[in-house]
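Lecture notes, continued. The same structure-token format from the folding unit now serves as the input rather than the output. Read the line below as a description of shape only.
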């Protein structure tokens, strides 16, 4: 028997396989984090059924749907068999309608323990919107500040390896937050998917806990950080990371030139976007150096003449911050950050 449950109850099921039975296009736009796509109908099939429904009514549309889905049923079951093992299945479509009802019934017949989400993906979006519809999060932020290249993202990843709740906003957004931010990265998620990842993170760490995050503007590429997250960051503890410019240049080169042909064409295109700030002659000179693989002077110039004046973070310890750490030795820097976090009230309240 298929159990129809709310999204809140569904999210509480441990070790479940979430199955999104919507079309590939719907799934690509956004889904519930962790779900796999087992579409009842492909994009074109769904469009054809919808067109027939409006022209001829529900009965011809249902018969077309049956004709399209019937040959695919063995393949669908086989796919789920390979992935599910002994897991419970949580099935959903757009609004908890006929698609999820049909597929849940199929998997139930095949012997699986099956749950169907009441209200489908729409109910999940209401859940996400409700979670983010507040002035500030209950979780307290510990915010990493610092100039470009000091290793803020690397620090977040190292803290996560040590079991710390590190929120990598740029990692979730698939964008490093600058004109060079998309180089070497896959497409960014939709705003809906980005918000889903955030809510998944915050519900996992629980209320009244803490999280570590890099200081960001509200916009990361085409995505917007929700207001309560920004509010918590504004009120959070402040950690300044700093490093010599030589170390920063080395880090930036390692990140941005790791790719086919060192990403030279992408680097040149991004530098071209700075023509209003740097002037045509300077952009042409920088791109000529990039073409020759002369990366260090280009990075040094951009840091000293563009990025550092934009961000204006200190390049040495500053009393305005709760902790200041030299990241030249990242391992030692992480040790100091962990020691500092353990002195905070929010750490002991977790």
């Amino acid at each position: 028997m298929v159990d129809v449950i709310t999204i809140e109850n569904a999210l509480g099921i441990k070790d479940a396989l979430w199955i999104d039975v919507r079309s590939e296009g719907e799934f690509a736009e956004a889904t519930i984090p962790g779900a796999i796509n087992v579409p009842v109908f492909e994009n074109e099939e769904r469009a054809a059924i919808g067109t027939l429904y409006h022209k001829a009514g529900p009965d011809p549309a249902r018969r077309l749907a049956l004709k399209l889905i019937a040959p695919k049923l063995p393949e669908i079951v086989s796919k789920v068999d390979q992935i599910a093992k002994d897991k419970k299945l949580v099935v959903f479509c757009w609004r908890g309608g006929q698609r999820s009802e049909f597929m849940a019934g199929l998997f139930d017949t095949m012997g699986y323990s099956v749950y169907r989400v009441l209200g489908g993906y729409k109910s999940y979006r209401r859940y996400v919107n409700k979670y983010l519809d507040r002035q500030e999060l209950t979780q307290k932020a510990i915010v990493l500040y610092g100039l470009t290249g000091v290793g803020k993202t690397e620090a977040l990843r190292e803290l996560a390896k040590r079991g710390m709740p590190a929120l990598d906003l740029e990692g979730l957004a698939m964008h490093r937050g600058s004109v060079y931010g998309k180089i070497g990265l896959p497409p960014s998620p939709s705003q809906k998917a980005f918000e889903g990842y955030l809510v998944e993170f915050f519900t996992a760490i629980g209320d009244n806990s803490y999280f570590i995050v890099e200081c960001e503007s509200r916009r990361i590429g085409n995505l917007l950080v929700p207001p309560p997250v920004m509010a918590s960051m504004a009120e959070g503890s402040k950690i300044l990371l700093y490093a010599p410019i030589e170390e920063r240049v080395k880090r930036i080169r390692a990140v941005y030139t790791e790719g086919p042909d060192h990403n030279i064409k992408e680097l040149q295109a991004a530098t071209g976007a700075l023509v209003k700030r740097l002037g045509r002659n300077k952009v042409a000179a920088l791109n000529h150096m990039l073409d020759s693989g002369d990366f260090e002077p280009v990075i040094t110039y951009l840091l000293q003449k563009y990025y550092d004046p934009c961000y204006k973070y200190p390049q040495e310890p500053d009393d305005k911050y709760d902790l200041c750490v030299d990241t030249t030795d990242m391992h030692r820097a992480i040790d100091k950050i962990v020691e500092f976090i353990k002195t905070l009230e929010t750490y002991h309240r977790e």
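Point for the exam: The chain has 18 helices and twelve strands.
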